[in-house]
Amino acid sequence: MLNYKQVLNQTVQISLGIVLASIGLKAFLLPNGFLDGGVTGISILISQIFDMNISMILLIVSIPFLILAWNTLTRLIVLKSFLAISALAVFIHYENFGPITDDKLLIAIFGGLFLGSGIGLAIKNGAVLDGSEILGIYINNRFGISIGKVILAFNIILFSITAFLLSIEVSMYSILTFLITAKVIDLTIEGFEDYVGLMIVSNQSKEIANQLIKEVDAGITMYKGHKGYGSRGIQNQTEIIHTVINRIDMRRTYNLIDNIDAKAFIIEFDVNNVKGGILKKYLSK
After folding, report:
1. For residue 221, what is the enclosing H or E element?
2. What is the distance between the alpha carbons of residues 116 and 93, in angstroms, rounded to a whole number?
3. 30 C-beta neighbours (distance < 10 Å), count
């Protein structure tokens, strides 16, 4: 159950996200005919071709995706998304930001930065400003295709149409805008701290674990391995180390393991979200 402070905090952050996204659109992308991916990109493309008001188009194009969301996401997320998209459309309509630059590279970069920050803040607080993510979730639930692949295919089609109807140059700059937007969304949601998971199998597991704690200040979990087979042949009763470390410490960690056991078996995997435990942070206290 949300308390009033949480509601206020989320409302402020979503509002800030709407302002940032609208700046990216009105001050950079729209005056120069650049697109982003997803529903925003479709809306800009239609407004460019038919010379229509982007605010109305954004609302109309978002409706099918919100209907999908009604059967895919929680009612609260759908409500917040509808209000956020409506607020963005109104803000774009009445906002009077003039074009800041006519440098195409700067337009693509800063348009993506502002738009990505805005969309990321909204998603982080339980609202959606672009419906392509909703489509990705829906198709993933129905057919098992990954959300990333759905969004990628969606945008390949969009940018191909852009190249055909507008120009290849606009399409190329729009792809650059989309890539920057996507990366900034990830950074806004996940933060700048990047973590990696390691699973380490070694005959010297206790010494490696002690050094990880002492030198890297990493939290670890030890698993008992009953039996396995690898480069050393059949192994019985081995201990497996599971740890999560900051990517900044990766080289130091691998060097530490190599110095103790150069033949250690290591699996490295991406970590999307971490909470609790011992995590070394470099960008915040």
Report:
1. strand 220-230
2. 20
3. 21
Could you read off the pLDDT of 225-264 as tens digits, one per residue?
877 676 666 767 788 999 998 877 888 899 999 999 988 9
Q: How far apart are CA 205 and CA 264, in angstroms?
A: 9
Query: Does residue 183 register a pLDDT over 60?
Result: yes
CATH of domain 195-270: 3.30.70.120
C-alpha 13/C-alpha 250 separation (Å) is 33
Checking phi first, is residue 245 left (phi over 0); if not, alpha (psi -120 to 50) or beta?
Answer: beta
The whole-angstrom separation of Cα 112 and Cα 134 is: 20
Q: Please state the pTM of the whole predicted model.
A: 0.73
Chain centroid to CA 91: how far? 24
Residue 30: C-alpha distances to residues 52, 117, 206 (Å): 12, 17, 59
List of residues 6+ apart from 134 with CB closer than 8 A: 65, 66, 68, 69, 72, 73, 81, 128
Q: What are the C-alpha distances in Å from 38 to residues 28, 45, 109, 150, 195?
A: 17, 11, 17, 11, 28
How crowded is residue 95: how many other Cβ atoms within 10 Å of its Cβ?
15
Could you give the C-alpha distances from 221 to 63, 213, 228, 244, 247, in angstroms and in order? 47, 11, 19, 10, 18
Domain boundaries, the chain: 4-190, 195-270
99 closest CA partner among 18, 17, 167, 23: 23
